[in-house]
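REQUEST FORM: STRUCTURE PREDICTION
Request ID: SP-0412
Submitted by: Lab K.M.
Chain count: 1
Length (residues): 302
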Amino acid sequence: MRHRILQRESRSNKTKKIYRIHHLSNPIDERKLIALREKNARDKRANNYLKRRVQLLTESLNGKAKEISSIRAETLDDKFSQLQIPASQQTVIREIISAAMKRDTKSRRYSEDWIMLCILMHIRSPSVSGAMENTKTYFTHPLDDNRKVFVFCDVPHVIKNIRNRLYNNKLRMKSSDSYISWDYFNILFDIDSKYPGHARVCPKITQRHVVLDSMSKMRVRLASQIFSNSVAQGLAFYSSQKVESLAGCDETIRFCAQINRMFDALNRKSPNEGVAPETNDFKVLQDSIRWLNDWESAQKKR
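STATUS: Completed
RESULT:
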């Protein structure tokens, strides 16, 4: 017995030599092995290519850093005169080079010309207006009077602002219309949450959607889901069931559906889904502009 135990122990301590697999008798395993070898070769080639690219970019960045650190004021003046760069753009270039030369950000000081340009940009940017009579979506570039800077609203923040505004105050399109009220969303949740999940009309709506705190006010998902088509249909469904507390929610239903269409038209992931004149999203945005203009006109007549 002792001899057998010692023999097994000696066998386990011996290192087994691993032989390279050249051929497999099973054709399925053979194809798998070939595929793994090809994938391994592709990964190696891609890794080597990326290493070379990183090395080239690092060398290029180091070279540019040395060039910037060696630039002097006289050299800059000569370049500016040769390229005929405007004075405002010269100020920007000088600030960029000055910032690149500083290793410690605490010792960074801005020039008076740069501060004046920043003030000028702050003065010019408020010229953007979304008013119906004088819509202006751009302001003149502070460094080049021949260029325009176009301003685009951040759609997630817009829908959060709309939701927060409605949460705090009621809205009304026209004096003859009923109010658009957040109370209807509360009533919808109270009624719908009494049913089990598979029987609910709006299963995604939770307490966090209708009772907002400082954190839930920042969640885009909660705002987009409350202004969804399913919520509009849920309000319409319970209103058709003669729920007394939902009487007069027609304007809220239309408002919810309109915001949902606007958000869907502006919320796209890939470039091929972008807004184009022949797309349905473009028509939705045109209808939305007319809807907003009618609302603004009605408010001015009140």
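NOTES: The chain has three domains: 35-70, 83-152, 155-301.
Reviewed by: T.R.
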